[in-house]
Amino acid sequence: MNIHNRKKYLSFLKFKRDFQKYGLEKARSYELVLHWLSNRLSRNQFLILSGIIVGCTAGLAGVLLKTLVHDIHYFIVNKVHFEYQILFYIVFPFLGIVLTTMVVLTLFKGQDKKGIGAILYEIAQNSSIVSSVKMYSQIVQSAITVGLGGSAGLESPIAVTGAAIGSNYAQTYRLSYKERTLLLAAGATAGIASAFNAPIAGIMFAFEILLTGVVFTDFIPLVVAAVCGSLLSRILLQEDILFRFYTREAFNYKNVPYYLILGIVTGLYARYFVIISQRVEHFMKGLNMSRLRKAMVGGAILSLLCVLFPPLFGEGYETVKDFTNGDTISIIENSLFKYFDITDWTVIMFLLMIVLLKAFATSITIFSGGNGGNFAPSLFAGGTVGFLFAVICRKIGFEEVPVTNLILVGMAGAMSGVLYAPLTAIFLIAESSSGYDLFIPLMIVSVISYLIARWFSPISPELKSLADQGKIFTNEHDKNLLFSLRTEDFIDYHSQTVPENISVPELFVQLKEGDRNIFAVVDENRVLKGIFSIDDIRPYLFGNSDLLKNISQIMRAPAALISPESKPLEILQVFDTTGAWNLPVVDSNNVFIGFISKSSILMSYRQLLKEYSN
């Protein structure tokens, strides 16, 4: 048998073993083909194929969600005359949040982790394993919330859906932790790319937000996933559904002062948006009522805001497009402000109220029980801030102000400051407006806004929330790797214990029959009294046993006590401080649970690091 045939034969045997081991007798035909390909293709080839499959699937999910919400939203907003729209603004946002909460409680058993934080949590805390339910739960929940008028965006649910698709695909084909994380990110990338028809922005989103500190040499699956998601978006979505802007002015370096000021304004507004979001979240969590009642309270508040200011209804992209087309009057005429004289100051006050209340509307939508994200709200608010800034500039005499450009770069500025993602914001607006000649103003505004946001808080709100809960680290990749380990996996629950009143002969018998080098001395309730090691008792083992009268002669207090709730990084820090290699784990009542070894944590960490490096 020549080398080529031998390789084919070995590949066949491996596939046969997998077929039997993983129960592939029940697998679908395409799964069998992919399992066969995974054995025939090289690792990089199979990852590229996986990126294409995950990208197309996540892209289709994004197209489905955008189309579904667009059709619902179009019917509510455009098929009903204004006299009746007030009724819709009262009823539908309320129903959106309440129905979403009911669906979560009944169909999804109360599991409603949402937003980018959910993906970050799964990467750092759950080995990039995402529940298969999230492949469709986010679509259902966000379609109800946003379709019926919730003031949130679809991009975060699309990203979570794509991440779940990538993770579950990787689990199906038994890919490693590193590859699972890569395909999780590829799915989210394709979702964002399909939502905006912006593949580069999707890739930037993955590297800036999801894979912070993670170095991947295999980035090609991200690229092909983004391209697939974007192509499907362009082919299947109608033009009015796409996030596209065509009208803009040519860049003029004389307008740089406007962009510098707007960067500061959007940075401060982004901070305002984050603070309002955090306070509304704290307020809603503090309400002593059921989730359904919270949803009813939040829905009622949102409905009132939408009645007073219809642009707060839904994602708001159409309103921003109206701004770029100079169609402000029609927006105001669809609100209660139509009963006032429409002057420049009326427009300014109307826009100012929209900007200030958008942060409340979005936070109430998300934290009272709806499902959505901050992508669309930050873009809407940034565009409105840019338009408001342009209107004010014209009011005070600067007639040559580039209105459309300020709207576009304002969107990038607010998104950069809210999401801590300047590159994603820059490429998103550049791709969506075909405005690559706006790179300079986009960079100016986005970077200034980002720096202001980091000046107030060095980490993004999503990461800070997880860090405050002790679920993720925020600075070094090594720490996130350590944090993916679980403390309970390193506790030796079969550690040898010795009663505190044991006699010396009985002690020697236990030592002879045991196989441990370190022992815990406990009372009848397993409360820890001390520890000792073989080295402590060695002097009495060979001819000097008569000198040992009782166990207290060799027993000593441990250098430190470990709680089972402690994280691996915290435990390693205790090991480094004390210089110990084994420490006892006790509960809150000082009851002994087992010993934990520094070497076991380090070995697991090295194995995980090796898996990432391969």
Provide key terms for this protein.
614 residues, mainly alpha, Clc chloride channel, CBS-domain, 3 domains, 3-stranded antiparallel beta sheet, 3-stranded mixed beta sheet, 25 helices, 6 strands, 4% strand, disordered N terminus
**How many helices?**
25
Major sheet details: 3 strands, antiparallel
Number of domains: 3
Strand line-up of the largest beta sheet:
1-6-5
CATH class of the largest domain: Mainly Alpha
CATH architecture of the largest domain: Orthogonal Bundle
Q: Could you please say which CATH topology of the largest domain applies here?
A: Clc chloride channel
Task: Give the beta-strand count.
Answer: 6
* Average of per-residue pLDDT values: 80
Q: Which stretches are poorly predicted, pLDDT < 50 over at least 5 residues?
A: 1-5, 19-27, 473-477
Helix content: 55-70%
Detailed description of the structure:
This protein has 614 residues and is mainly alpha-helical. The protein has 3 domains: 3-236, Clc chloride channel (Orthogonal Bundle); 253-469, Clc chloride channel (Orthogonal Bundle), CATH 1.10.3080.10; 485-613, CBS-domain. 64% of the residues lie in helices and 4% in strands. The chain has 25 helices and 6 strands. Strands 1-6-5 form a 3-stranded antiparallel β-sheet. A 3-stranded mixed β-sheet has the order 2-3-4. Helix 5 crosses helix 20 (461-468), helix 11 (256-286) packs across helix 17 and helix 15 runs antiparallel to helix 16. The chain is elongated, with a radius of gyration of 30 Å. The two termini are 31 Å apart. The chain crosses the membrane at residues 46-66, 86-108, 182-207, 219-237, 258-275, 295-313, 345-369, 375-393, 405-430, 436-456.
